[in-house]
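Notebook entry, structure prediction.
Reason for the run: the old model in the group folder had no record of what sequence produced it. Starting over properly, with the input documented here first.
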Amino acid sequence: MTDPEIGMVTTGRGMDETVYTLIADEGGVWHAHGEDGRPALLVPDPGLDAELSPQDAGHAVMLPLDGAAEIDGEPWLAYRWGEGQSLASRLQSMPLERGEAVQLALRLLDGAAHARLMGYSLGWITAERVLLDRDGRPKLAALLPKGEVSEDALRGMGELLFHMLTGQLAVPNERGELPALADLIVDLDPRLELIVQRALGEPGVPPFEHLLALRAALTDYQAELAALDGVPEEDESPAGLLLRRIERTEDFPALSRAIGAIGRIADGDTERLQSLATVILRDFSLTNKVLRLANSASYGQFGGAISTISRAVMVLGFGTVKSLAMSLVLIEQLSNHTHAIELKDEVAKAFFASLLARKLAEKSGYRDVEEARVSGMFHLLGRLLTLFYFHAEALEIQQLVREGERDDIAARRILGISYEELGMGVAKGWNLPGKLISSMAAEDPKPKPPRHDADWLRLFANAGSSLMRATLAESEPERFKGFLQVRDQFGEPMRLSERELRVAVDDAAREALREASIFGLEAQGSGALARLRQLAGLPVAGAAGAAAGSGQPAAAVATAAEAAASPPAAPDRPEVLEALASCVQDVTETLVADFRLNDLLRMILETLFRSLAVDRVLIATRSVQRNAIVGRFGFGENIEDFLARFALPLDETADVFRVTLSKNADVLIEDVDSTSIRERIPAWFRQAGAGKTFLLMPVVIDKKIVGLFYADRAKPGSLRLGQKELALCKTLRNQAILAIRQKTPS
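New structure, fully documented this time:
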């Protein structure tokens, strides 16, 4: 029976009845919770005898949880529904890759074969009836009574394949025709298309006779894929299962994209500055934090304020800025969580360990200390991921440690793998550099002298982690014992004395307290940073305020960046003037040194992009082959697509672009649709998806058109510049001309 006001339904018989709370209706089935909180799925009852259900443990068929139920007078059945999500929910975000869809269909069909051996068959299969558990394995709620055969099961599996591959339901049009798969899927394999058509019973193709025939066809197709593409079987090891659990969480894709986007920028990439600056500038918070760090005392020896990411890369080096960005992204992503306080303390420990690794690299004479810093941070990735994604397991590990178990042994017992193996598995998925992944491994109790970069990084990362634990120990005897263990294990391979190790700890501790606020790791009343303040003889209260003062050299940069996110006003804005003037000074200093022309032009573009708060900014240059001014590089929304469409023909057309170039005049168009100008806006520009207001500054050298600077905003009239602001923009354009002259052979 049901009580519609409280959404409850009773299942079972007599004294064994169970009460379920209905949660949500999804595609004709109900998600519910039992009295003990266990999730269940309620489906219309086809007359299945619960007492005779198949005892299945390893296939895609689920056991009915109880007997007959009743909702509004109709019989229903309750299935066990574990942790995970329905396939329907999964497909709402995106379709499955073809290999994943085929693998999932085969698992469901294996369940059908198993059920058939038990005398059962499958009914209509929909995505709402498929549960993907936390390891990605499917369970199915679609059994029919013994001896009953469903003619719809085969077409249901065909529609499910259609749904998995396209992300859309197989809904026919008014003529009864289904959409063509080839119209919905790019580069669809015709072999797979034929299998789906046969399962759906489409006209003109021979249908499958039964589910087992479909299973055989999919098995053959999967074997062909494996032979041609080398597709590996799904990893069922403990590491593989944990990684699949992580990959299916809501937070992980964003973290993967953020880390992977930075990690994939190769050191040898000729356009690496553009790539790195573009990735960082997408995130306003990350941009400000990188600039604050670049202007902090740790990097202040380079002199002068750094106001752009491009300038930071030119001054500090590509590797340094890339390392800082990766560390910042990891800390910011992992600190934003339900268990934020506990996680932040673990992140603070990893942050301190990374600074220790950097100091050890400095004192050992290693050439790339920032590489050591990132290695120190990522060495503890597995531990951080466990606390972030497997909090229940992390609590079990902590309990074992409190009972006297060694930390690494407890982790392996609960997770099935070590922290290091988990972190390395995720890092491989992110395509991080091999030597960074190697540095995440545990070091030998007696390390050999390092021979390669990977050996050095592993040594620094392990030593940094061990020194971190020793430094943060609660009692002085523990600290002293831990420090001696680090000295005895790592001192000789790193060629560092006990005194050098102690100095490294002191320097790293000071730097940690100084930089913590930039990373969003203000000290609490307890925890790693509070312990460092205590050891330094500083009061824990007010630590956040003390640390925040470390960012003062970049205060003007932060103010300008915040203002850049606000709508621009008509009068001159002091913060915009400051940002533009700072860039003029940076370019002046760059021009008297050795520089790459593209790097300098990107510095100018980045300043215009951030200070003027435009949607897009680019530089376009003349192409002799195309007789046009074409987009070269820039920053902003969909910039790569826009650059490809930005092509100004150098013909005799009297549009606003040609007039501007021919007169070498700087022009700000407030509204492309205003009656005074709309006839002068060329069709190619409108088709390119440009903004409604834009700024043009030609680049003309010796009366020859070389190119132009372009910036736009979407809303008409939203790009307004004060007189001094425009003058500084022109100065930057003139500096670009000077740079081009210097780099152009006479």
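Summary: Residues 54 and 118 are 6 Å apart (CA to CA).
The old model has been moved to the deprecated folder.
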